[in-house]
C-alpha cells in the first residue's frame, strides 16, 4: 500500500521522455519557422507575397496532416511507431533544408527542389508525430488518476520551453545578416529534432 502511494505521488519516467521529445520537436519546428520567410526572401529571393503565401500554406498543411497521421496510427502503426517515424522524417526534412541552404548560391534549381522537398518532409513527419505524442501522455496513467492533469501541465511546459528557445537559438545562428548562414539554423533545428527522437 505504501509503495503504491509513493508511486502515485510522482510521475512515470515516461512522462519525462515525452516532455523532452516534445520540447525538442517544438524547438526544431519553431526554430525553423522563425527564419523560414527570411530564408525565402533573403536567400532564395522569393517575392515577399509568394513567401508569405507559401508560409501560410505550409503552416496550414502542418495542422491538416495530423488528421491523416492519426488515422494511420490508429489503424496500422500505433502511437510509438508513428512518433518515431514522424520525428525521423521531420529531422530529415530539416537536413534537406540545410542542404538547400548550403547550395542555393551555386545551384538554384537544385536548391528549389531541395526546399520544397524539405518542406514536404516536414509536413509529412508532423502528420505522424503531432497527433500521437499527446495521446501517449494519457496512456501512462490509469483511468481516473488525479496526476494526469499535472502530467499534461508538465508536458505543455515542454512545448513552451522548446517554442521559446527554438526561435531564439535558431535565429541567432541563422539570421546573422549573411544569407549563407541560414543553413546553420536548419542544421540546429535538425539536430534538435534528432535529440528529441
The chain-level structural class is: mainly alpha
CATH architecture: Up-down Bundle
**Oligomeric description of these chains:** single chain
Number of helices: 7
Q: Tell me the radius of gyration.
A: 18 Å
The biggest beta sheet is recorded as:
none
Mean pLDDT: 92
Give the CA-CA distance, first to last residue.
Answer: 36 Å
Q: What low-confidence regions span 5 or more consecutive residues with pLDDT below 50? A: 1-6
Q: How many strands in all? A: 0
How many structural domains can be distinguished in the coordinates?
1
Task: Characterize the overall form.
Answer: elongated
Q: Proportion of β residues?
A: under 5%
Query: What would you give as the CATH superfamily?
Result: MFS general substrate transporter like domains
Q: What share of the residues lie within helices?
A: over 70%
CATH names the topology as Growth Hormone, Chain: A
What is the chain-wise order of helices and strands?
HHHHHHH
CATH class: Mainly Alpha
Describe this structure in words.
The chain has 197 residues and is mainly α. It has a single domain, classed as Growth Hormone, Chain: A (Up-down Bundle). It is 86% helix and 0% strand. The protein is built from 7 helices and no strands. It has helices at residues 2-9, 13-43, 48-77, 79-103, 108-139, 147-174, 182-196. Helix 2 runs antiparallel to helix 5 and helix 6 packs antiparallel against helix 7 (182-196). The longest helix has 32 residues, at 108-139. The radius of gyration is 18 Å and the shape is elongated. The model is unreliable at 1-6 (pLDDT under 50).
Amino acid at each position: 500500500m505504501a509503495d503504491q502511494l509513493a508511486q502515485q505521488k510522482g510521475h512515470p519516467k515516461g512522462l519525462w521522455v515525452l516532455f523532452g521529445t516534445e520540447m525538442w520537436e517544438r524547438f526544431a519546428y519553431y526554430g525553423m519557422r522563425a527564419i523560414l520567410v527570411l530564408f525565402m526572401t533573403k536567400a532564395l529571393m522569393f517575392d515577399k507575397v509568394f513567401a508569405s503565401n507559401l508560409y501560410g500554406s505550409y503552416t496550414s498543411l502542418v495542422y491538416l496532416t495530423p488528421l491523416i497521421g492519426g488515422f494511420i496510427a490508429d489503424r496500422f502503426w500505433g502511437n510509438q511507431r508513428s512518433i518515431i517515424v514522424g520525428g525521423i522524417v521531420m529531422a530529415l526534412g530539416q537536413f534537406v533544408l540545410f542542404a538547400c541552404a548550403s547550395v542555393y548560391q551555386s545551384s538554384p534549381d537544385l536548391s528549389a527542389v531541395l526546399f520544397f522537398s524539405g518542406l514536404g518532409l516536414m509536413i509529412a513527419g508532423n502528420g505522424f508525430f503531432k497527433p500521437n505524442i499527446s495521446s501517449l501522455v494519457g496512456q501512462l496513467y490509469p483511468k481516473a488518476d488525479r496526476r494526469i492533469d499535472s502530467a499534461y501541465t508538465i508536458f505543455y511546459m515542454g512545448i513552451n520551453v522548446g517554442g521559446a528557445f527554438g526561435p531564439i537559438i535558431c535565429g541567432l545562428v541563422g539570421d546573422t545578416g549573411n544569407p549563407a548562414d541560414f543553413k546553420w539554423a536548419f542544421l540546429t533545428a535538425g539536430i534538435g529534432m534528432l535529440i528529441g527522437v
